[in-house]
Amino acid sequence: MTSTDRVGRLLTLVPYLLARPGISVDEAAADLDVTDRQLREDLELLWVCGLPGYGPGDLIDMAFDGDRVTITYDAGMDRPLRLNQDEALALIVALRMLAETPGVGERDAIERALAKLENAAGEFAEAPVAVRMAGNADRLEEFRKVVQRRRALRITYYTASRDEITERVVDPMRVLVMSGKSYMEAWCRRAEAVRMFRIDRIDAYEELAEPAAPPPQARSAEVRDSVFTPTPDLPLVRLRVDRSARWITEYYPCEEVHRDADRWVVTMRVADLGWARRLVLGLGAGVTVLSPPDLVAVVGGEARAALDAYVAP
């Protein structure tokens, strides 16, 4: 069950329970096609959802009579959603942007949602707004032509995993699109290996007079669901994550996920421990590093240093 599935179910749950006061948890779980345990977890989550202010009078409230539940305060979720002009236009622009993004899946669903929203918005949908993905489709075509010219390139590239900008000479091999992102695959003379360069992270490039000449050992990577393919030689990281950080199991390739009631233990390969450090620190209290020891030490040291910064002199 993904986070998106759960959000959709939670939005349905309050009106469903309002229409059936005193319904048993077993019956509600059967109707919603979830387990009793999952439904109880959803009800616990609803207890901390509500209106801005989030005080006792703002949060969704329920009453239990044995195994039966009744909504006593719905925080306004009994009313159908009504969008004003700005909200409707913002959604239309966002959906049009998704539709313009190369490689996005579920395009039929996007088109259907956009058509329904434009129909409901009426004349608001005709506002003079043009949507284009800057630096995406145009730049993709630009680099396709660069690769076709078969010239070596000197590029200035931002490496997100190490948070650094480098200059390198590469021999382009091909351009591809994965998960809405455009990449140039090339032999990197600095790394002496084939590398994938995200096109939107190439800050500048210069075509050289010499032809592109990848060496015989340069082979294009087999790309399926993701540009990043974990291999056994990459560092193995084990994390204990709570509910707030479980989304990483949907977003990143994981080798193992051991689930229990409170916390999950996630095992994943990473291209760079520096990237893993930034991921973990960004997740805050939602994650604990179990291994490798080097990552445990680095994250622990930076976390303690951050806490020390709050100590009053």
UniProtKB/TrEMBL annotation:
Membrane-crossing ranges are none
What InterPro entries does this protein map onto? CBASS_pafABC_assoc_protein (IPR051534), PafC-like (IPR028349), PafC_HTH (IPR043839), WCX_dom (IPR057727), WYL_dom (IPR026881)
Q: Where is the WCX domain?
A: 236-307
Q: Where is the PafC HTH domain?
A: 5-118
Residues forming the WYL domain are: 140-206
One family from Pfam that matches here is: HTH_PafC
Note the PANTHER family from the entry. Answer: PROTEIN PAFC, PTHR34580
The protein, known as: Protein pafC
What taxonomic ancestry is recorded? Answer: Bacteria, Bacillati, Actinomycetota, Actinomycetes, Micromonosporales
